[in-house]
Design brief:
It is found in: Cell membrane; Cytoplasm. Its EC number is 3.6.5.4. The chain is an alpha/beta fold. The chain is built from twelve helices and eight strands. It folds into two domains: about 90 residues, SRP54, nucleotide-binding domain (Four Helix Bundle (Hemerythrin (Met), subunit A)); about 190 residues, Rossmann fold (3-Layer(aba) Sandwich), CATH 3.40.50.
């Protein structure tokens, strides 16, 4: 099976291509300069490629893995032309992503093994957390699923208000309390409401402050413990939302949150407004957590299920 089979609709693919345009242009401008006048992949080309990958926010550790794999292919092949470098990079990066991401999904879906499916969303303020929740709720509703939102980020009144705006826009129920309320209490009420209304999916927003990791860890642990009193083994997915445009700062946020709670999946937002799309590759590889969703535009349809085949195809097109 080809790594790069076409499985997205043409409309989704066009959105993805457009969303990665800045990252792709930046990357290939650098790459073309690195191989100018060169016919063979030698040490100088590899050194330049290493610098390009690092400055494209792929991350040092992941870059070293990619370079090592290419070096191995160069030594086995003895003569590797620079004209083949694009194809080889595609294959090696797709291979890296394959180690973490199943990557064959194209539609928004949930496991049918339990009901409701509970998603707890974490991430710092400003990364697009509330927007991601709203777009995710919209996509699940489009699939015919009953969705309930829980506004457990009670630290900021704006967070509750923003989630209410999305609930109104998508026309789905929201459970909330006043600012300063106990987040665990909101989560408990949300799950009780979801069970009573026979909901399919529950999405719980949580506070995004990172100034004290111990407090964050304690709060998220308490929220999870209270949830499990209502729905066994919940949350079933802890989704960390990261802003792709922040590059290396997104790595640091991933490090902090994975230390504070067990993150099971990632959403990387704002890829359309940045040349730092390589961060998706690095974060997925470094933290060995699957990227589940990517944000490639501001429209309500522009949150996509991450598909490694299509991502790599668009990036190296």
């Amino acid at each position: 099976m080809s790594f790069f089979k076409k499985i997205f609709s043409s409309e989704k693919k066009e959105t993805l291509d457009k969303g990665l345009e800045k990252s792709k242009t930046s990357f290939f401008t650098k790459l073309n300069k690195a191989v100018a006048g060169k016919s063979k992949v030698d040490d100088e080309v590899l050194d330049n490629l290493e610098e390009i990958l690092v400055t494209s926010d792929v991350g040092v550790n992941t870059t070293l893995k990619v370079i090592e794999r290419i070096e191995e292919r160069v030594s086995n092949d003895k003569y590797l032309g620079t004209s083949e470098l694009n194809r080889i990079l595609r294959e090696e990066i797709a291979g890296l992503l394959s180690e973490t991401n199943s990557g064959e999904d194209t539609e928004f879906s949930i496991p049918k093994t339990h009901k409701p499916h509970v998603i707890m969303v974490v991430g710092v303020n400003g990364v697009g957390k509330t927007t991601t929740i709203g777009k995710l709720a919209y996509q699940f509703k489009k699939q015919g699923l009953n969705v309930v939102l829980g506004a457990a980020d009670t630290f900021r009144a704006a967070a509750i208000d923003q989630l209410q705006v999305w609930a109104d826009r998508v026309d789905i129920p929201i459970v909330k309390q006043s600012m300063g309320s106990d987040p665990a209490s909101v989560a408990f009420d949300t799950l009780e409401s979801a069970v009573t209304s026979n909901a399919d999916v529950v999405i719980i927003d949580t506070a995004g402050r990172l100034h004290n990791k111990v407090n964050l860890m304690n709060e998220l642990t308490k929220v999870k413990r209270v949830m499990q009193k209502v729905v066994d083994n919940s949350p079933h997915d802890v989704l960390l939302v990261l802003d792709g445009s922040t590059g290396q700062n997104a790595f640091e946020q991933a490090k902090q949150f994975t230390a504070a709670t067990e993150v099971t999946s990632l959403a990387v937002t704002k890829l359309d407004g940045t040349a730092k799309g390589g961060v998706v590759i690095g974060i997925s590889d470094q933290f060995q957590i699957p990227v589940k969703y990517i944000g490639v535009g501001e429209g309500i349809e522009d949150l996509q299920v991450f598909n490694k085949f299509e991502f790599v195809d668009s990036f190296f097109k």
